[in-house]
């Protein structure tokens, strides 16, 4: 047995192990490369899908924003239309009021007092006129104060009139401010119809 040489067998075993190791390493590297490649492809696919979802969502958000803008525009138009309708309703509702105001002015006007100008600004009136005497002017003030349609008559100016038709010692020019008051609508309508 002393002549048996085990070195070639050991060397072939070593070469075979080395060859298996290299093959194993090659398989591991191939599997690792394939897994990295597949993971990369999977991630790229997921990123692409997410970008597609994002772009779809952006498109839907743009559609919703357009609808919201249209709704806001419609609401603005609705508000403007309601304001116009309100103005028209107010005008329709206040139309008989001016007739009633003029009717009350005629009722409160005593004989010997004449209005020259009547100016209405909002809920107040400015009247300029001529009265034959202070007594007639006092009657006018009492009747205006007693009316349901007028409040706070305030005589601003009294001066002697130089108009023809009145004697300078008795005629008086006056300026009067008063506030307009709208009495209860049902009561005033019923009174006006009677």
Question: How would you describe the overall organization of this protein?
Answer:
This protein has 194 residues and is of the alpha+beta class. It is built from three helices and four strands, in the order αββαββα. It has a domain at 96-193: Gyrase A, domain 2 (2-Layer Sandwich). The chain is rod-shaped and about 165 Å long. It starts with 6 loop residues before the first helix and ends with a helix.
Instruction: Sketch the topology as an H/E string, one letter per element.
Output: HEEHEEH
Beta-strand content estimate: 15-25%
Backbone shape: rod-shaped
Mind telling me the CATH class of the domain at 96-193?
Alpha Beta
**Nearest-angstrom radius of gyration?**
52 Å
Order of the strands making up the biggest sheet:
1-2-4-3
CATH topology grouping of the domain at 96-193: Gyrase A, domain 2
* Known CATH architecture of the domain at 96-193: 2-Layer Sandwich
Rounded to the nearest angstrom, the distance between the terminal CA atoms is 153 Å
Number of helices: 3
Helix % is 55-70%
Q: Report the uncertain regions.
A: 186-194
Report the biggest beta sheet as strand number plus sense, adding barrel if it closes.
4 strands, antiparallel
């Amino acid at each position: 047995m002393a002549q048996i040489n085990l070195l070639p067998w050991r060397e072939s075993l070593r070469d075979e192990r080395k060859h298996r190791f290299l093959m194993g390493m090659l398989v591991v590297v191939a599997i690792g490369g394939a897994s990295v490649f597949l993971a990369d492809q999977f991630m790229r696919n997921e990123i692409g899908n997410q970008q597609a979802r994002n772009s779809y969502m952006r498109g839907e958000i743009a559609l919703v924003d357009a609808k919201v803008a249209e709704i806001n525009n419609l609401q603005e138009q609705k508000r403007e239309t309601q304001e116009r309708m309100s103005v028209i309703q107010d005008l329709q509702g206040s139309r008989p009021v001016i007739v009633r105001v003029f009717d009350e002015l005629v009722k409160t006007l005593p004989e010997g007092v004449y209005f020259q100008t009547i100016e209405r600004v909002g809920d107040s009136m400015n009247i300029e006129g001529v009265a034959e005497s202070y007594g007639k002017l006092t009657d006018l003030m009492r009747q205006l104060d007693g009316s349901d349609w007028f409040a706070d008559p305030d005589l601003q100016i009294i001066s002697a009139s130089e108009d023809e038709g009145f004697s300078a010692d008795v005629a008086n020019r006056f300026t009067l401010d008063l506030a307009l008051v709208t009495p209860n609508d049902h009561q005033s309508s019923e009174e006006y119809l009677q």
